[in-house]
Structure formats: structure tokens, C-alpha cells
Amino acid sequence: MIQLRDVHKHYGDYHALRGIDLEIKKGEFFSLLGPSGCGKTTLLRTIAGFEAPSSGSLTIDGRDMAGVAANHRPTNMVFQSYAIFPHLSVAENVGFGLRRDPRSKAEKARAVAESLEMVGLGGYGARAAHALSGGQRQRVALARALILKPKVLLLDEPLSALDKKMRETMQVELIKLQRNVGITFILVTHDQEEALIMSDRIAVMFEGNIAQMADPETMYRRPNSRRVAEFIGKMNLLPATAAMERNRIVVDVAGLGRGAIEPDQAPSGVQPGATTVGIRPETLSILFPGETTDRRLAAGTVDEVVYFGDMTYYDVRIPGVEQPLTISMKNLIGRPVLDVGAVTQVVWDERSLVVLSR
Ligand SMILES: Nc1ncnc2c1ncn2[C@@H]1O[C@H](COP(=O)(O)OP(=O)(O)OP(=O)(O)O)[C@@H](O)[C@H]1O
């Protein structure tokens, strides 16, 4: 539905977008994720028509958007600083975009009520906008965008001003809303958790480039580079050597040992020789007294313990490995929390390794 081909954007000498190729499907919840300054807002604004690409093409529904003004595109944008008008009522805010709509007053009022219903603010129409909470204002901004029935809703960090609890509630509500209305959502966020929770697909951006584009599970389990791996969640990085042995890829991981891996565990390919592998903390575990395993073991010493409610995070030092490995363990009834200095066995599985050669 939305297609970008080799899109570049220059601001004077600064090269903000460096050849973006992107295809977003109808009805998809797509997130642009990356650190501050990577160009995600520029990309969103380019799709919206607030910025013109320096080169490259953008089509929406097969129609070339070159020269098409923002207000003539089938898109609508919801901003971080959801600029609602404080002197108007909630209903007046939501109906603002219908000022020039030829429908009757009663029909417009019905559309406003419907939009408010969609965002969980049914019955709030008469309230003064200035008397709303942050989360409610955000919903008003959403209702105001939805009433225009855009094909694509562009969301620029829409939840970043909300506190954590409210943000989590709104994340779930936004997902439900998107499923109900079926329109394409493109979300800009620097919050990896938010992107993982909400998206059908994510593009991770660094310095004006898309580093990886994938569904959340692939992005998390099979990052294609060290940088993506470290940007999303916590990843243990270990030096390793890779070799091809009878058509199998075998990696020898410092301190852990050798294991054969599948091709999908090396999303950017494998060069024989020195490499880096990643392993997520929750794919490692500690073998507690009385437990057995048929998986691989490595002996180590607990270096650090961080207790975190239902989880405990251990840093375990393993001979031959420079950095302690972080291991997250669910706190279960009867499972002790180890102390710093405890000698332990770390359980690992070659299936959770990912080769991060870049
Ligand atoms: N109008 C502009 N003129 C000059 N440089 C700009 C302009 N807009 C953005 N930039 C630069 O382009 C780069 C990308 O900006 P952009 O706003 O897209 O980043 P971002 O990834 O959205 O970051 P943030 O999360 O901080 O908003 C930044 O280095 C920024 O300074």
C-alpha cells in the first residue's frame, strides 16, 4: 500500500535519510524504531507530506505522492504534543476537521460520537478539553484523526508524554483500535518494548538507514547485527569462531563450547573464522541443586545479583569469557536466590545462539 524506493533526504549537508526502501501493507501496524536522530520522524513526515524527499519515490495505493500536499494525502498524523484546543469542548475538538464537511449537523454529531466511542471516550463530548488527563487528551487527538477516516494513521511518539501505567493501557487500546478499524498504522517510537508489543512489523533505523525490518519475534530472536541486538533488549555477546563442517555451521563459543546452528541463526550469513554470537539472558538458566538437564553446561561464579520482583538477574562469570553472562531466572516457589560468589552451572542451548558477524 505504501511504497518507498531509494528515498533520500538532505538537510543542507546533513544526510538524514540514506536510501530507504520500504513497503507497508494495508492494515499493517508498522513501527519505525531507532535512537534519537536516526531519521524516523523525518521518514514519517516524508510519508505524511510535511517533508519532500530529496530523491527517490513514494507511492500510496499506487499513486505517486510527489507534489501532493499533506492535506491531500490519504494519511493523518497524530503528534506527540497532541495539540488539542483547550478552549473547546471534547466534541468540538474531535469535530474540528469536519468544519468544511457538507454533512448535516446531526450527521457530524453522530460521527463525533462514534469516534469518541472508538477511543473509549463515549459520553465525554461535552467536557472541556482542558479538564482532561494526559491519556484522555491523547485519545481525543486519536479520535480527531480517526473521524477523517484516513487510510493511514501516522503516529509520532504518541504515548511518550504519558506515565508508564497509562502508556501500557494505551498500548493495548491502540492495538485493539487498530484491529477494529483496520486502517494502516505507522508508529514512530524510540521505545523498543513499545515497538515489540504493538507492531506487526518493525523497521530498526540507525543514521538514516534501515538496519533490519522484521516481525517482532524475528527482530528479537534473530537480530541481524550486533547493533540491532543491543538496541532491542539485553543480549550477551561472546567471541566465537565459526566453521562449516559437512554442510553444517558449527560455532565454538568462548567459555561455553561448540554447537551446530541452523542457517536462520545467522541472519546476515556466516564467514568462517572469528565472529560474535549473541545469547539472550532468558535462554540461559542456572541449574539449581536437585535439577538435571540434558542441555549443555558451563561452570561459573555468581558475580552480581539483581532481584526484580518475579525475576532475578544474575551476572555469572565463566572462565574464558571476558564479560560475565547475564541470566534472567523466573522466581518460582522453592527456587532459591543465589548469593554473589556462589559457584553454579549455567545451562545453555545452541538453538538460542545467533551469529552477529557485523
Ligand atoms: N528541518 C531540519 N533541518 C535540519 N536538520 C534536520 C531537520 N529535521 C531533522 N534534522 C536532522 O535530521 C536528523 C534526523 O532527525 P529526526 O527528527 O528524523 O530524528 P528522530 O530519529 O526522529 O529523532 P528523535 O527521536 O530525537 O525525534 C537529526 O540529526 C536532525 O537534527
UniProtKB/TrEMBL annotation:
Signal peptide: none annotated. Pfam families: ABC_tran, TOBE_2. The keyword Transport applies. GO terms for biological process: putrescine transport. GO terms for molecular function: ATP binding; ATP hydrolysis activity; transmembrane transporter activity. Keywords: ATP-binding, Nucleotide-binding, Transport. Residues 2-232 form the ABC transporter domain. One of its GO terms (cellular component) is ATP-binding cassette (ABC) transporter complex. The keyword Thylakoid does not apply. This is ABC transporter ATP-binding protein. The lineage of its organism: Bacteria, Pseudomonadati, Pseudomonadota, Alphaproteobacteria, Rhodobacterales.
